[in-house]
Design a protein that fits this description.
- It comes from Cryomorpha ignava.
- This is CopG family transcriptional regulator.
- With 81 residues, this protein is mainly alpha-helical.
- The protein has 3 helices and no strands.
- It has one domain.
């Protein structure tokens, strides 16, 4: 795994230390990698939502009811609700 050297502000360093001291993480690197994973997942979700909005904008109007649309989305997401 590539090594990097980064500098943190004092408040961020204190926060990182608190995360490690809470024993949820074993190192600052683990905390930073977890934050990056979460940010990447969030960005993936944002990109998905933007693509869906763009598709909807380009697709014009629909005759489906709001409930029909909700059911369609639930089906696409694999939710059995």
């Amino acid at each position: 795994m590539p090594r990097q050297s980064i500098t943190f502000t004092s408040p961020n360093d204190l926060w990182l230390n608190a995360q490690v001291n809470s024993e949820e993480f074993s190192s600052k690197s683990e905390v930073v990698n977890d934050l990056i994973r979460k940010a990447r997942a969030e960005q993936t979700h944002i990109d998905y939502v933007r693509a869906r909005l763009k598709k909807a904008e380009d697709g014009g109007f629909t005759d489906l009811s709001a409930e029909d649309i909700r059911q369609e989305i639930r089906k696409e997401l694999g939710l059995n609700v």
